[in-house]
Write a structure and sequence with these properties.
mainly alpha
Length: 136
């Protein structure tokens, strides 16, 4: 959990960040609030860390929700691909409509993944939830 990047948070993108999926910002607002490519890169890195956390839970918790863990794995891969696409587009066209839309998609998936990770921690390691919330 200490490897989660606290230098950017998706809290501004969602009223219910870490508890519920969905954004309360347009693609244009999302791009501004995420600080453009900086927020994309943080999501890319944090998705990998959350994937590792899910894998750790699978190895060390007997009654972990396997469907939830598989969903987290899928989330992480989709976020990372979407972020790479947005960053590649950004390199060629800066903040074009396509970049903002891909960034919005990545941010939407990221808030969903964070909510599911919170759920996994509540079910498997509730003592870690406050640290996770603080890190995100």
């Amino acid at each position: 959990m200490s490897r989660l990047r606290p230098d950017w948070s998706a809290r501004e993108l969602s009223d219910q960040f870490l508890w519920k999926e969905g954004l309360n910002a347009s693609p244009e607002d999302t791009w501004t609030r995420m600080q453009g490519p900086h927020g994309l890169w943080v999501m890319y890195q944090n998705a990998k860390v959350m994937l590792e956390m899910a894998d750790f839970a699978t190895r060390h918790c007997e009654n972990v929700d396997r469907v939830l863990v598989e969903t987290l794995r899928s989330d992480a891969m989709q976020i990372r691909v979407c972020v790479l696409m947005a960053l590649a587009q950004y390199a060629f066209s800066h903040a074009s409509e396509g970049v903002r839309v891909n960034a919005f998609r990545a941010a939407s998936m990221y808030t969903g993944m964070a909510a599911r990770m919170t759920q996994l921690l509540q079910e498997s390691a509730a003592v870690l939830v406050p640290d996770f919330v603080a890190a995100m």
